Amino acid sequence: MNSEDARDLCLNLMVADTEEQVIDLLTKAGCWEKDDFWRNYGDMENNYSTIGNQQSRPDAALVEKLVNSIDACLMNECLLRRINPEDPARAPKSIEEAVAVFFGESKSKQTPHSPVTEWLPSKRMEIAKRITLAATGARGRAGKASFSVADSGEGQTPDTLPDTILSLNRENKLRIPFVQGKFNMGGTGALKFGGRNSLQLVVSRRNPGLVNGSENDSDFMWGFTVVRREYPSEGRRNSIFTYLAPYKADSKPKKGGILRFRSDTLPIFPDEGAEANAGARKYSRESQWGTLIKLYEYDNPGRSNTNILLHDGAKERLDLLLTEAALPIRLYECRNYGGHPGSYSTNLTGINVRLKDENHSNLEPGFPHSCHLKVQGQSMVAKIFAFKKGKARAYRRNEGIIFTVNGQMHAALEDSFFKRKNVYLDYLADSLLVIVDCSQIEGGMREDLFPNSRDRLYRSRLRNEIESRLEEMLHQDQALRDLRERRRREMAESKVKDDKPLIDVLQDLIKRQPTLADLFLFGKRISSPFNASGLGGEKTDYQGKTNPTFFRFKDVNYGEVLYRNCPINHKCRVKFESDAANDFFIRDIDPGTFELFVDQDLPGPDIDNYTGPNLRDGTATLTIELPNQCREGDELRIVTKVHDPTAIEPFTNILVVKVLKAADTNGKKKKHVRDKSQGAEKNGEDKKPGQLGLPQISEVSQAEWNNMSPPFDKYSALRIFHAEAEKGDQQTDQIKDVYEFYINVDNVHLKSYQKTSKKGAPLIKHQFIYGMVLIGLGLLHEHIGNAGPLVPSSESESETADESSFVDKAEVVSKALAPILIPMIQSLGDLSEDDVPSDNESIEAT
What we know:
About 25% of the residues lie in helices and about 20% in strands. The chain is of the alpha+beta class.
């Protein structure tokens, strides 16, 4: 195949959008059926063990391709400056520094960070066009789209492709600190999400500026190949991935194994569409060098395959998976769908940048804010986003906690995390997103937290402690507590005062049934489920300073030592006061930093675990976990420093903690001591351990479905919210659990029975309500008694399931029971002794 024929084949492969077209082109070229033309990916026969063990979702796998393109662009700029990427003295030490050095100076002299958020639109567009993602081919349910990722990064020569893009387990980027890729395999994760044959086109040319002076003519050529999956055959138990390399592996180096051709430019990039209803133009912008990866018939990375730029399209997912892309990426929709010319392309910058560009208009006032975490000596920063009702759906699915490294999601916990008993944020579960930046975690610990696939968390002690710190952080966040109470009030305040007759009837019903009465307790009914004290309004008047003038312990003069006593089994909590703006620790330019350590003048064990400071409206809360090495009588002299990069000296505060003996965690008095021999409580009270009080019950009509969060639909039946009362027993200072039930009184099955039944509609409605409440109470009783999930979780669910996941499962169970609840109640109630078999008869015979 001469150079011109190879170029024509490459161009035809680029515009092909189905596997059938690709196979036809390669068959006509005499390549598809010749096994000796195909080389093992990574020169490994068992390469499926690596390739098949990558990302579990097509969106996460696609992101790896974009990350590789970002790495290639950073490498290109570094090499053009004749800097060895592994040189610790000259090479950038982080991705942020590389972006600042290679793509523009920072606005600040104190930090090298030049964030994308501060770039002008013209500069974003200029840089974004260096990395593009284009959708071509089929749309909608008609078939799978193909995705092309192109970049003007360093590029590869035909001879280096087998050792770079087509390699596995090499050390290509292992010692380069300013790139994301480390494992030399992440880009292969996308292969298994293609069509039947997992076809992928690879086209690349080295930047001529990096090979000037080379005597190897191939170094200036374009190289290309096609990757395919070969299924198990002839005794081979696993699939194998191979790529087209028509020349023998032992040929002379100047021939290599990759098809190549000469061309000054190649149209690897798409371009903006000029006409309405025509889409963006695919493969229309020429480039002198770079890399193109095309994934044929790729599994849909979004929920919609109509347009990758619209809601539920690929962009929405990519914005979340690349929370803060180091470089902007240009997305192109090259399929016709009827939009105006400007609707076929946009920039991908990540959810952090996107929300800031929108001026946080979809967030609740005062958000986002941040909190520092230190777990096992590893520092992290959590950024908390609280969306307005219904707005979170445009930014996330069921993700609640996202863990990122250098702006890329590495794992996520579902939003059921916010429903955990230690968090108490059920009412906000579908409105919250927490992004935990793990970029500062050291390499070994990061390996213990994230697998190489970068799409989940390992089950480990480190993970458990991080989750515990996050629970504590969210539970203590006053802004979230205020917002939770406001949401509760908005959903149910007008209803709970009207349901006393319902409660009375239900209470009498259960009391008449000894079995039910034994399960549930009916004490004093809570007059109001809301804690109105301290509720913030929807707006805050607080205006902090960009550069604070003080940051000190609350009610302590600056420079004075704060003394605290702390039982050895408790955590030490302190508050700071400051005039710092809420975004002081998370702003893009000159963010503040926090450090905490034990003073060497009064030595003690290192403090490896703390949460905070959580800064909000001039108050910051810090929670310190005492080291395991502490003993009763120890004193810890703890130094905290808050650094403002624009200030000469940090704000230094000293805390001395005296360790006391362990406190009684059961409270000051034990009021309910059960006498097991008598089956009753010694104090004579009627309450039994594990019994439940009647919940707050609210009816939800169809007109109010959208007021629920998330909204009800016609199949919804029961939703349980786990709320927290501020105080329970004043003597024990315990927290009392409050459960609130919402019943859909316009459930489609209920309405159907009301229409066809001879009995009155009000009676049927109340049968439905009472039945659903009893089902909910039964589920709660079983859950609390077993202290575990209602239903055993599957392996995939177990990573995010916890003691309060029953709330979601109770909704599923009630929805499943709704169609049979009314006929079951009525049919069983009509049974007589004549309708049932005697003890001597079998049910089968009947």
